[in-house]
Every structure is written in structure tokens, then in C-alpha cells.
Amino acid sequence: MIELDHLVAGYGRLAITPALCGTLERGSMTAIVGANGCGKSTLLKTLAGFLLPVSGVLHWQPARPTIGWLAQRHALESQFPVTVQEVVSMGCWPRVSLFRGLNRDARKRVAQGLERVGLTAMARETIDTLSGGQFQRMLFARVWVQNAPLVMLDEPFTGIDEITSQILMEQIVDMHRAGQTLLAVLHDSERVTRYFPQTLRLGENVAHWGATEQQVREKCHA
Ligand SMILES: Nc1ncnc2c1ncn2[C@@H]1O[C@H](COP(=O)(O)OP(=O)(O)OP(=O)(O)O)[C@@H](O)[C@H]1O
């Protein structure tokens, strides 16, 4: 799906990551891990197209698909006067007409998305009433409704309790099972080992990219 050809992510001319070579296969599920400040989010934003590469090239095969993006909580204005259902419905854009509104299938998918994350009862609440965990559930429902071929998640479990994290992890696994390609920045190594078949570990001057199992073995022997 994406081939990285000596890709260096950073800001302007400032390189943050080492040069990365490799392929993100269609249908894969990859965790990006590494120490604080090593450039995980910077790399994700570069792959999503929010930042230009410092050097190197990204090749999309066949073409850049729609990307489902789950930003950290602060990126969405939680005082904005919209309801939970309206935010989740945004996952249907641009497939439905803004003027005609949601058709029956789209409304059904929005309802399913809300149910998956346990927010059905809160559908008509405005988002300023949500707790941090409920807010994150809502963003997951939106990404699930969107059903994009490629989904990128930046630290989706930060500040989220274990029960909610597990519910959200199940949504990620289901999206992977449905054939979507998943790429997530994560800190929890247990979750990475348990659920993510592929890992991209960023170090200061070098990156290791491959089967998670292999990387855990190599780390243990280091
Ligand atoms: N707009 C920017 N301009 C210049 N440098 C930046 C900018 N944003 C972030 N950085 C720097 O880039 C480096 C990598 O930041 P990034 O957020 O990608 O790291 P991270 O691995 O995701 O960290 P964490 O695990 O703490 O979330 C940091 O040193 C950070 O200070």
C-alpha cells in the first residue's frame, strides 16, 4: 500500500526520524513504537500527508486512499455545540450528500458505530458533556463508520481506562479483520505484542521494522 524509500520525517529541513525503507502492506496492522520524542507522531503525520518528508519518497500503490485519522483528543474542539450522533455521522462524509442528509444505510451504520462503543444512550448529548473516555469512544465510532481503507491512530489509548481501552482495541481488531490497513502509534508494549502482527520501532539513528514476534525475540537477546 505504501512504500517508504529512504523516508526521513521531520519539520522543514530538521530531520527527526532515521531514513526509513520498507513497505506497509495492504491489510497489515502495524504499531509504531519508540521512546518519547523519537518522532512517532511526526512519522504518522508525514505518512498521512499533513507534513512533507524532509527527504526520501513515499510511493502509494496503487494510489493514496482515503485515510481514517484519529487524532489525540485536544485536536477536536470539545465545546463545539454538536451532538455525539452528529460527530459520528461525519464518518459518512463525503459519501453522502450534505444537502440530502444521511440515507437509511448511513443512519444504520452510525447507529451500529455508536452501539459498538457503548454510546447509544448518549447519542443526542452534546459533546461537551462527555468524559475523556467517552469522547475517545465517539472518535472511534466515527472512524469505524468511515470505513476507510487505511486507518491511522495516534496514541489512541492515552488517558483512557483499561475497560474503555479494551473496547476500543476490539474495534481496531475488527477493522483489521474487515480488511482495513491499520497503523497506530502506541506506548503499551503488552498490547502491541498481543495484537499487532507488525512493529516499526523507531530508534535515534536506526529503525527496526518487521514481525512483532521477531522484534520481541531480538530485544530479549540484546
Ligand atoms: N512543529 C515542530 N517543529 C519542530 N520540532 C517539532 C515540532 N513538533 C514536534 N517537534 C519535535 O519533534 C520531536 C518528535 O516529536 P513527536 O511528537 O513526533 O515524538 P513522539 O515519538 O510521538 O513522542 P511522544 O511519545 O512523547 O508522544 C520532538 O523532539 C518534538 O519536540
TrEMBL record:
GO terms for molecular function: ATP binding. Coiled coil: none annotated. InterPro entries: AAA+_ATPase, ABC_transporter-like_ATP-bd, ABC_transporter-like_CS, Metal_Ion_Import_ABC, P-loop_NTPase. Gene3D superfamilies: P-loop containing nucleotide triphosphate hydrolases (3.40.50.300). The keyword Plastid does not apply. The keyword Oxidoreductase does not apply. SUPFAM superfamilies: P-loop containing nucleoside triphosphate hydrolases. Residues 2-222 form the ABC transporter domain. Keywords: ATP-binding, Nucleotide-binding, Transport. It holds the Pfam family ABC_tran. Belongs to the ABC transporter superfamily. This is ATP-binding cassette domain-containing protein. It comes from Kosakonia calanthes. The lineage of its organism: Bacteria, Pseudomonadati, Pseudomonadota, Gammaproteobacteria, Enterobacterales.
